[in-house]
Amino acid sequence: MTVGLLIPCYVDQFYPNAAIACLELLEKLGVTVVYPKNQTCCGQPMANSGFEHLTHGCDELFVKNFAEFDYIVAPSGSCVLHIRDHLHDEANPEKAAHISSRIYEFTSFLTDVLKVQSLPAKFPHKVGVHQSCHGQRGLHLSSMSELVAPEFSKPGSLLKMVEGIEIVHLGRTDECCGFGGTFCVVEEAVSSKMGKDRVADHLEHGAEYITGVDMSCLMHMEGILRREGSKVKVLHIAEILNGVR
After folding, report:
1. Which of 21, 56, 85, 111 suits a disulfide with 154, CB 3.0-4.6 Å?
2. First and final CA of the chain: distance in angstroms?
3. Domain spans of the chain?
4. In angstroms, rounded to a whole number, what is the distance separating the alpha carbons of residues 101 and 120?
5. Is residue 179's pLDDT more than 90?
6. pLDDT band at 36, cuts 50/70/90?
7. pTM, to two decimals
8. What gap in Å lies between CA 191 and CA 209, rounded to an integer?
9. How far is CA 89 from the centre of its chain?
10. Is 27:45 a contact under the CB 8 Å cutoff?
């Protein structure tokens, strides 16, 4: 099995440790991982802003970089959902369709493809888990509180394998943090208030760390934590599952 590793722009630039943890854990689990060095943005910011017709260059390059892999894995639910729903390449429609059907968010790849049953990780801290909207409602990584249905969480099932971790129970388990990609730019005040509310829930329940599958949401909340002078830190879930150095 050969996996192409997709690393989102903001992870590459601001949170490289999340990318490294993702790579290291996949390799520990016996996966052959390749990082295509010519990869760029997947095109999601443009599409979210109403300019999907301008993403053709991104789509064509994405197909060129990732078409030959058995699977594509990314530590980002939002980027994965964008590729699944919006990747188009008129010159190579079969390759685009193959990619769309074989791309996985990191935790779903661990649970659904590798079917991981145990992890050699230890993290003796109180951790709040943020359920990102794209992952939860688009990729179905966890159950939604508004539905009368059995509860489940793919990220949560993996975190339970970590020795010493204490998952804190939040008052509003799947509330949006307000980031929303370009939403935090065009609706700054609303985004900020939503982020403050989301952070307050974690602080109220004693979290020492906030984790999740999307570094973009965590980046948004990290900014709020820093402005409030909080000692609470954010970590991508891959870092915890890999064993934080």
Report:
1. 111
2. 27
3. 2-113, 126-242
4. 30
5. no
6. very high
7. 0.94
8. 21
9. 25
10. no
pLDDT at position 184 over 80: no
DSSP the chain: -EEEE---HHHHHH-HHHHHHHHHHHHHTT-EEE--TT----SHHHHHTT-GGG-HHHHHHHHHHHTTSSEEEES-HHHHHHHHHH---TT-HHHHHHHHHHEEEHHHIIIIIS-------B--SEEEEE--HIIIIIS--B--TTS-S---BHHHHHHTTSBT-EEPPPSSTT---S-TTTHHHHTHHHHHHHHHHHHHHHHHTT-SEEEES-HHHHHHHHHHHHHTT---EEEEHHHHHH---
What top-level class would CATH report for the domain 126-242?
alpha beta
Identify the pLDDT of residue 185: 75
